[in-house]
Amino acid sequence: MTQATDRNDAASGIEGVLLANRDRILRFLRLRGAGDAAEDLFQDLWMRLTEKRTGPIADPIAYAMRAANNLMLDRYRAGRQRELRDKAWGEAAAVQKPSAEAVLISREQLALVEQAIAATGERPARIFRRFRVDGILQRDIAAEMGISLSTVEADLRKVYAALAAVRRQFDAG
């Protein structure tokens, strides 16, 4: 026998077992908690077992049931991991009300940032806001303002330098 023939015989054998015991396997999956997903899990089981190259199986129904049980365990573990991840993300996303002191510090820092941006001049401040806040491309800003792209880049560098100086103040203080 050729290798292809061996594989076809093995696939036909396990396919026959799956077809003959379809209702039994679906009932098993439902009892294990699959509910409406039992049909989908049966299809996954079919794909796993018919694509896998195996030799002779001593007890094919036990093999299929064990594979179905493993699918259910995988499903349970994936669901548990999803729950833990969602819970962790939810806890991380839970917004805690900042203290009055933190609010005051943030407002003072924002005022310093706004002052630093304004100190760079009207055009650099406008370019910075159009680029960073409005999301306009640098070349579009240059066309809109009637200046060169290199002027836009230079003005942005000027604002970034001012913001870096403010950041150093925050880090030092």
TrEMBL record:
Q: Which InterPro entries match?
A: RNA_pol_sigma-70-like, RNA_pol_sigma-70_dom, RNA_pol_sigma70_r2, RNA_pol_sigma_r2, RNA_pol_sigma_r3/r4-like, WH-like_DNA-bd_sf
Gene Ontology terms: biological process: DNA-templated transcription initiation
As one GO molecular function, the record gives: sigma factor activity
Is this entry keyworded Transcription?
Answer: yes
The reply on keyword Chloroplast is no
> In which domain of life is the source organism classified?
Bacteria
Q: Which UniProt keywords apply?
A: Sigma factor, Transcription, Transcription regulation
RNA polymerase sigma-70 region domain ranges (all copies):
21-80
Gene3D superfamilies per the UniProt record, alphabetical: 1.10.1740.10, Winged helix-like DNA-binding domain superfamily/Winged helix DNA-binding domain
Q: Which Pfam families match?
A: Sigma70_r2 (PF04542)
Q: Would you identify the family this protein belongs to, as annotated?
A: Belongs to the sigma-70 factor family. ECF subfamily.
Query: Would you tell me the protein name for this molecule?
Result: RNA polymerase sigma-70 factor (ECF subfamily)
